[in-house]
Structures are given as structure tokens and as C-alpha cells.
Write a structure and sequence with these properties.
Organism: marine sediment metagenome
Protein name: Enoyl-CoA hydratase
Pfam family, one: ECH_1
Family: Belongs to the enoyl-CoA hydratase/isomerase family.
Number of helices: 7
Shape: flat
CATH architecture of the largest domain: Alpha-Beta Complex
CATH superfamily of the largest domain: 2-enoyl-CoA Hydratase, Chain A, domain 1
InterPro entries: ClpP/crotonase-like_dom_sf (IPR029045), Enoyl-CoA_hydra/iso (IPR001753)
Radius of gyration: 19 Å
Order of helices and strands: EEHHEHEHHHH
Strand content: 5-15%
CATH topology of the largest domain: 2-enoyl-CoA Hydratase, Chain A, domain 1
Length: 144
Amino acid sequence: LACDIRIAGESARFTTAFVRIGFSGDFGGTWMLQRLVGPAKARELYFTGDLIDAREAERIGLVNRVVPDDQLAGETRALAERMAKGPPIALARMKQNMNLGLVSDYSALLDAEAEGMIMTSMTEDSREAIKAFLEKRPPTFHGR
């Protein structure tokens, strides 16, 4: 649940089976699941312990996408490599902003975004991206 992007193989199954063994849940799952699928669906999954398949998990937003089982490792590696080629400073700031958006008000988020835009616009990576765009080539980011 705590991953930024979740990819499941088509045979994956998911459950919050705590209710089946008389437990209330742990590791922040109740907090996280509500944010992923909404309070009503999270309550249903926790209170019933129902098993859902990968397609249902995708439909409700528990996973981002479902791929054939034999392509799971390749798909996740390809996505990780694609993201690793991105601008690390900007990506880190995006993640901070998204996390802040879960716990703060809109005004505070706008301030953080403005601060982040100023900060990231002054990086070497930003200059490289603009130069690469003008030269019609992919940028090469270095995290500076």
C-alpha cells in the first residue's frame, strides 16, 4: 500500500483478512487504504475481509495497473528505469507536494508548490531540460 505506484500481476489477489482472525489491523493499513480507495470501500474491505482480484483492485484504485504475470518483473523494471531517468530533484519535490496535499490545506500546498517551482527552476537539471527541448533531444538529468 505504501508504494508510490503499484503494479499487480493478473493472478494477484488482495484481502484485509484481519477480521477473519479477530484482529483490528496494523502497520497503518487503515489510514492508507482509505486514501487509496476511499473510506466506504476501505471499510467494506476491512469489515468483510473479502478477497478481491487484480482487476477489481485496479478498478477501485488499489493498484495502478494490472499486467500479465509473466510480464510483471519486466513492466515494473521498465517503469523504474523510466522514472530513474527523470529529474531527481523535481521528482522528490513532486512527492513532497503530493504528500503535503494529503495533510494540509490548499493554501499551504499552493505555497509549497510555488516554493518548489522556484527551487527546481534554478537547478542544472532544469536548464538541461530546456536546452534539450530546444535542441529536440531527450534530457540527461544528474540531480543537480
